Structure formats: C-alpha cells, structure tokens
User: What shape does this take?
Amino acid sequence: MVKQLGTKKVSIMDVAKEAGVSITTVSRVVNRSGVVSKKTQENVLQVIEKLRYKPDISARLLASKQVGKILGIVSPYFEGIFGSYYFSEIMRGINSVSMKEELDTLFHLSGHFTSMELSNRLVFNPSFVQGVLLIDLDGDESKVKNLKEENLSFVVINHYLENLSVHCIGIDNRSAAINAVNYLIEIGHRRIAAITGNLSTQAGIGRLEGYKKSLIDHGFDVRDDYIVGNSFHPDDARKSMEALLNLPQHPTAVFVASDEMAQEAMDVIFERGLKVPDDISMIGFDDEPLAAKARIPLTTLQQPLFDMGKMAAELILDIIQKPDKTEETKILLPTQLIKRESCKSIG
Amino acid sequence: MVKQLGTKKVSIMDVAKEAGVSITTVSRVVNRSGVVSKKTQENVLQVIEKLRYKPDISARLLASKQVGKILGIVSPYFEGIFGSYYFSEIMRGINSVSMKEELDTLFHLSGHFTSMELSNRLVFNPSFVQGVLLIDLDGDESKVKNLKEENLSFVVINHYLENLSVHCIGIDNRSAAINAVNYLIEIGHRRIAAITGNLSTQAGIGRLEGYKKSLIDHGFDVRDDYIVGNSFHPDDARKSMEALLNLPQHPTAVFVASDEMAQEAMDVIFERGLKVPDDISMIGFDDEPLAAKARIPLTTLQQPLFDMGKMAAELILDIIQKPDKTEETKILLPTQLIKRESCKSIG
DNA sequence: CTGAAAGCGCTTACAG
DNA sequence: CTGAAAGCGCTTACAG
Assistant: This one.
C-alpha cells in the first residue's frame, strides 16, 4: 500500500455541511435508501456534483459489513500465460458468469503464496473479495490447507484434490491418457513414447500415469528411454523429440502432453526428413485451435476448459450463497479423443 | 456488494483480550512496526495463530489512509477478448510491470461505464486502486472527460486523445495504413481495396484514413465500392471479401484491418479458385503469430502491443509517484511493415 | 422526512 | 516497551 494522492479528499461531512443537512441524509441519497424529500435529494445531488464527492469504499464496506463485488483469481504465473489457450479458455468460462453477476475480477498472478501473503494480499481478504478461484495449484497442496483455515470461500480449478475436503474441479488426465494410448495400441503401435509435461503439476503426472497404465494393461513394457521431458515448454519438447529420434530404434508413435509441444515435436520430425503420420504417429493434448489447422491436423484430447472455468465460478457463487453448506463439491471432467490425421495404423 | 459470511469475525479486540495486551500492541506486531518486546510479540503471534485472526483490510485502509496495491484495468468486452492476440499482448506488457511492482490487477470488463458506475465501481475508487488503465475507449471520449474530473490517476491505452489533456498512449494507425498502401502502389497495384475494422474505434478509423490518404496522395481515385466492412469480426471480413469478389472488376490488392480478418478473406479467395498473391495481394494488420505461419505467410503491420501495455503501466506508476505533475504524457507508437509472401508486384 | 450518535476495525500520534 | 484515545469515512438502528 502506498500513500494516497496529495489532493484533499472530500468526505460525506463536506457534502453535509455544504448542503445544510446531516450526513445521514447524504448517505441516504447516495445509497438511494430510506426516504428523502425530492427537494432535499436534488439539493444534495447538486452539492455532490459540485464537490465531486466520491464515497470512500473502504469506509463503506467497513461500516456496512459488506463485501466488494469482486471475485479473486489466483494463478501461478508462467511465461506465455496471456495468450495461452489454456488460461484464456478458463478465463472465458469464469468471465461468462462474472460478467452476468456484475462481478469484477481481482488477479493475483504468482507461483506461490506464503501464509504471510494470505493475510496481506487483498485477493485473500474476505472483506474484500467474495471468494477466490485458485487455478492450477502447481502441485503444492499445502497452500490449500492454509487457506482452508481462513474464513474465505474458494474453489480450486484444474487440480483435483483427492484427500482434502475442498471444493475443486479438475480434468481426468489419467483416463484421457489411457484413452489416447489405447487408441495408439488399437491401431497397431507397439513402440509408443511419451513426451511429458511438468511433473509437478497434476496434468503432467496424470497424463504420464495414464500412459503407463495403458501400456501395462496391454502387457507391454514401460521403457524408460521412451519417457522424456518434464515441462510444458515447446523448447523442451524439441529436445525431448530429438532425444527420441536419436535412440537406436525410434518410437512409431508419440503421446505428447500438449498440442503446442506436439507441434514443436512434429517440426523436429519433419526437419529430420521423417513424416507424420507415415513414420511417426502423434497425439497431442488440449485441442487448441491450431491443432486442427496444423500442416498435419493433430489428433488430440479435448478438455472442457471453458466449462471448467464456468462451473468453478458458478460453484463459488453457490458456496457464497450457502455459507452453511458443509459437503464439498468435487468435479472431475471428462475429455474426448479427437481423431484427425496425425495417427496412422501400422502393422 | 453482498452480506458477509455468517462466520463470526475475529477482530483485533479479540486478539488483544486473549493476549492480555492493548490493541495498539497487537497492531504493532501485525504490522511489524514500532517496538515490541520479544516476549509480547511471540505471545501475540500465538494468539493470532490460535484465533486465526485476519486484519480487516477495509478498516486498515481507512485508518491508515492508504491505497491498495492494486492496478485497475478497464476494457470494453468483446467476444473472444480472452485468447485474442491483441488483448493478451497488452496484458503481457502491463503484467510485466505489475508483477515487478507486486501490484495485483482489478479487471472491469464492460463496453461502457456510466457516471454512476464511476462512483460505485471499485475499479474507479481512488481509495482502492492506485490508478486505472483504460484500454480502447471504444470511441467514446466523453467517458474520459468524466474521469478527468475524478480524483483518480489513469492512462488511456490504444486510443490517442488529440484534444483532451489526458495521459494516453496509442498507435499510429494512419501512418501504418499509408505505409501499407504506399507499398502496394509501389509494387504496381492500382485497384486496391480496403476491408475496414469497426469504424467507431480509433484503429478502424485511422486505418481507413491512411488508406484513403495514400491513394489520394498518389492521385488515385478513392472508390466507394472498394471500401467494405465496419467491424473486426472475421465473419464480417468473409462477407466483405465476397462483396469485393462479386464486383465486375475485383481489386488486385486488399488492405485488411486485421490479420485474423485477412486470414478469413484469404480463405474466401481460395474457395473461389483464386490465388494469393498471384491473383490478389493481401496485407493484414497486427502481425499475429498465425500471420507468419499461415498457408501464405501474410504481409502485415506489426504494432508494439506489448510495449504499449508496458509503457502505460510504467506511466501510471510514474504519475502516482508525482501527483503534482501537470503536463500530460502522450505517446504515439510507430508500426512496422513486415513483408512476407502475400504480396506480389504486378504490371 | 430528518438527524444525533454509536459503531465498524483498524492506525497513529501522544503520553508515560 | 506499552496503552488510552482520537480519528479514518462511512452506515444504521433509533428517536423524533
């Protein structure tokens, strides 16, 4: 917090004096509450205009014990978060309800929040914000435990908390990956690799787990050299794909943890003079717009990002409405395999 | 605003009583201000922990006459704003400074704000927000006049206010368009059309003006039937391009007000069995990532969106620092013509 | 229809 | 090192 502007602030008292009425009356006309005679009202309104009076919101909230019409949104920051399909879609979902409810949104972008932040950041202050939406915990569930102890409504987005009694809504990454790899096996692939995402995120972990699970269920070996990467950065996908291609025997199919990375990996394949899907089949994750428009339209997993944001926002509004509700709502959203041209049956 | 949660709030008084000290002391340890004996401090800290005390921010701001560490951001809402290159880049620029300064951002997305909103919306409240960034006025400069009269720092982004003494930072759309059309003329085009953007925005107007200016400067006629569209929606670009193609003599070059629209227009051209750039040359605006990656890499105007956001954020911080500063900062950012493969010389 | 007064939960000189 | 008290700018019973 920082000192206010030097300009002398005009308060309700100034207006009352100038208008020759009590502050109660001024308050009444400002809030259009109670009864005020037409005459007084007009007079006060004029004075307000003349003095450019603006009620102090802090005082207002404090005196009325109300909460701002604000929804807090907390997300770890990552390079490219703005413009990413992931974040944009979730925001679009959240916004579809916050606009309808006339809620503004207060953003706090930062990887981690300490308990000190908890009490100091406005985003986390229950007298400020109706509730907060926590996007993508970044693997650190302990923060949520701290928040639980605060008098603050919140729901976690894109991270399903199995063992914590917390409102959350996530995506079934594991099943999605199983689906993808099952499909690859179905169409004859045996040498299937995985380029994984950040393994400190639930998405990264779940997608890798599903990959392994499908392989094991079909009686295939899980090869260490076929599991590469630990980040959602396209640059890393490039390195991962190169590593895969440098193997004595490269895979015939690759399951990649994001479309963006899959795109980059495909570029690497082309650069080596190989072809998708003829030499290597590819499956991405996200169903970004560019996945369909790519040189080789990408087979991928579609996840309901918009719905997730929307449902989360609806959920928090619901929670606020019913402060006595004790059971937690936990939602796990399904994905859908979108088959396009980047996969080919072999054998 | 909405009533607070039912849970009984614990106040500084509760902590003071439980700890057997005055509220002054509690305040001191909460704020790490003044001197407190190690012993007392530890004791108070424990009670705070035990009672889960969280200072009320409103009371705090009110009593201390401070302002929240928040930057307000106001933008007209449009379908697809999240995920748009335009908005994302500006946000990325703003965020690059707000994160460094540890400022959170309060968003208000709405086409218009009335003077009532001015006094009620938290985004506009000087005791809440350090200042506000107004993105893209949507053509309505009168709002800015109202804001001017408030005791609130703000800077306007992507709208250059010629005649108002207001901090603003815009893009030189007119020069950009002149540049583009000059180039088309240089490489031999004479039948040059324009698909315009929303003509109630400065970008839409400026780009059209520049187009006309270049034509006139070269002694060419400005043909009404070669000026189509009045929106930034790709769907409308489709209709516009169709209209152009239905003309007895279609243009040999089209200057389009955005890359996204240019993309759509190119699709229409292809569908008609024509080719870019062989039959028709195209120039877009924005230099979106997809412009370079399109089937036919698009010649376009690059505008410094990121810089605009960044500079605006830096500017407002500067203004807040120096409340006595009277001169307005007005910045008009240049664009750059990026030549790619969608234009071909003729004649 | 109007106003005096208490109170919201803090901070901050000031005094000790 | 600690506390009593005034004050921040409002709202809201309550009384008239």
User: Anything to note?
Assistant: The radius of gyration of chain B is 27 Å.
